[in-house]
Amino acid sequence: MKKFRLLIAMLILGTSAATAQISSLDTLMTDSIDERGMWTEMSYKKKSNVEINTKRGYITLKSKANKLTAYDAKTHIFTDLDVNEDFEVKCSVDVSGIKSGNMVGLMFDYMDDMNFMVVGFDNRHAYFQKYSEGKLVGEIICEFSVKKKRGSMWELAICNTDGRLDFKINDVIAFDLRHRELVSGGVGFYTFGKQIAKFHDLTILQ
Question: Is the dihedral of CA 124, 125, 126, 129 positive or negative?
């Protein structure tokens, strides 16, 4: 019984320490997305298959799908983020409905349109994916039910604390990643499948 209590105490202490580290970070960047120029719009697929618009403080991504192929849409910026130190990247996103197999999420460790990592969610799962030379080379999928109604706003965050990456949806940890080497301060937004999402209020803490 004493061992069990000690384990609980250690878990609580570890969680508190991680929270304290994140809360002590300074704001490296905030972006209300009022200006179109700082964002680089790109998509690996043909331009006709996606729509990316910046307007009134939102970046709207619309990816499309047909019976044969699903498409993705992404947009990114390069920042002064030091990925070898603790950090938090977070944003708000308004989702116009989401179905299983689609994805809405954050990109990080973005080098170019064929090399990046992404975390996101659909209505049943949370995802981590790593792309290298345009190919999916690593993936984690876990159950994470989305119960909000169509058109709801979500808070997304990817937090690095002592080399542990936590993906949070509305301050709830969907999963954590360990031993992931990061090299780029490129971050961005992502949708996959037949999906529309409006991203806003990007904040980077370090």
Answer: negative
How far, in whole angstroms, is CA 10 from its chain's centroid? 29
* Contacts with 130 (C-beta within 8 Å, 6 or more apart), sequence order: 116, 117, 136, 137, 138, 139
Query: From CA 58, how far away is CA 32, in angstroms rounded?
Result: 8
pLDDT at 71: 78
Predicted confidence (pLDDT) per residue in 64-111, tens digit: 876 556 678 889 999 999 999 999 999 999 997 888 889 999 999 999
What number of residues does the chain have? 206
pTM, to two decimals:
0.81
Give CA 26 to chain center in angstroms. Answer: 20
DSSP label at 26? P
C-alpha span between 198 and 139 (Å, rounded): 25
How far apart are alpha carbons 43 and 132 in whole angstroms? 15
> Which tokens hold the place of 109?
């460790």
Structural domains in the chain, CATH included, are: 27-205 (2.60.120.560)
